[in-house]
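Give me the 3D structure for Succinate--CoA ligase [ADP-forming] subunit alpha.
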Amino acid sequence: MSVLVNKDSNIIVQGFTGSEGSFHAEQMIEYGTNVVGGVTPGKGGQKHLDRPVFNTVAEAVKEVNADTTIIFVPPAFAADAIMEAADAGIKVIITITEGIPTGDMITAAEYIKDKDCRLIGPNCPGVITPGEAKVGIMPGFVFKKGTVGVVSKSGTLTYEAADQVVKQGLGITTAIGIGGDPIIGTSTKEAVELLINDDETECVVMIGEIGGQLEAEAAQWYKESGSKKPVVGFIAGETAPAGRTMGHAGAIVGGSEDTAQAKKKILAECGIHVVDSPAEIGLKVAQVMKK
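Predicted structure for Succinate--CoA ligase [ADP-forming] subunit alpha (291 residues):
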């Protein structure tokens, strides 16, 4: 089993005909992802990348049974795109867009709360199930199929972790980039839970960063779950000065518990195998899986 996306997902691209949407849709199609069409208001009825273009997500759901969407809509309109997808019955909404105003995201998150859908992102690299579906902007060649799940706030470290796991002769079930904004759809805990509950996933890599409580919540859940599946954790931002935003809007150290050191301590106390450098992730995964 994989989580969130697989070869049977019917995927559409919102912002399909824009430069970013076009570029990444083309890469996704080349990878073998089942992209069934796209949405660009006002361009319905046209063909793009040999796929149909629709004016609305509802049309795409009706015409091509879309169940998953990836959003490349500009920041000012992205929250509307999320709500439109949820309204149309899309089950997995992956939002790549960076810089969505926090107020817009609060509205969107509240709006979709009672809908039967899962939002990944925004400001994320997407989700990949190697050999089946790449719904995002990650370099597909880095990922090989295997039994290690990856959850990460950082795009670049998602690829780094996957690369190291593969170099140890292992591979990935699904890698989920949850995004680094203050308001995101799927938390670290929820993503870790999906992978822990996945039959094929034997080990989980959890990459977090300074700021917020997401990693601590995930660690606490893991401890209470009693799961025997090993989790390897890394926290980025050890040298960051307190109170400064570091790249991600969510990476602001507020209190003493938000620092990398404090988070690493919490993770270790909850039974997670913590590494001090991203360069150690692959080796640690290989070690804990041999036990």
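The first helix runs from residue 19 to 31. Let me know if you want a second pass.
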